[in-house]
Amino acid sequence: xxxxxxxxxxxxxxxxxxxxxxxxxxxxxxxxxxxxxxxxxxxxxxxxxxxxxxxxxxxxxxxxxxxxxxxxxxxxxxxxxxxxxxxxxxxxxxxxxxxxxxxxxxxxxxxxxxxxxxxxxxxxxxxxxxxxxxxxxxxxxxxxxxxxxxxxxxxxxxxxxxxxxxxxxxxxxxxxxxxxxxxxxxxxxxxxxxxxxxxxxxxxxxxxxxxxxxxxxxxxxxxxxxxxxxxxxxxxxxxxxxxxxxxxxxxxxxxxxxxxxxxxxxxxxxxxxxxxxxxx
Length: 280
Prior knowledge:
Blueprint: E1 2-7, H1 29-38, E2 41-47, H2 63-73, E3 78-83, H3 97-108, E4 112-116, H4 128-139, E5 143-147, H5 153-162, E6 168-170, H6 179-187, E7 194-198, H7 214-225, E8 230-232, H8 245-255, H9 261-275
Parallel strand pairs: 1-2, 2-3, 3-4, 4-5, 5-6, 6-7, 7-8
């Protein structure tokens, strides 16, 4: 069973038209389900992201509600990570994060949350508020889907040490785009609670599709973390501005061709299902 560990749904295309136009099929649950069916993907975990700014034409302030509704309407196919206090929010690294986490999880029924960090480490992980936030996530049995640029990797390791029962999924190969950044990311493999999404090839490549320069770095990550801590994701619909959904599968399959069939089963579904069980 193939499961997409990283995609999005938006009521409005969240990027300015000057920067990127929306995919022709739209960003609706139906469009996502069509992509899944067309590519032999059985299920998807949707990463909520309340982005788009203050412009009513691009804003998605209710994205948690929209994604939760899609999950309720399509329970066999969709689950969600609820957006909590990500870098675009007015509550980013403000007091009260633990209470906001509990509120969003209670309201949406999500089994995990996403937190998008800014480019630079602001020291928040070392605060009492962060300790309370991650302790709450741990006690609620959640999975943390974290957008953490390389500047945060050391802090992620410290947090994993303090909260060993909180599974952490790092977006887009940890956003490590150089050999040095990959080596620093590999250090995090010492924490068994940390896994990495095999997604977002374009974010970590200096080449055009099919992003050939990613392959040797991804092999190093795979050897360090093991297939059972890698989870493939399409980054749909953002990725469609650069390549097709089928390409997102093909790029990962090609880059991981050195793995055997059982290991590939982990990457393309087993890992995310082990972290985020679907239930009945």
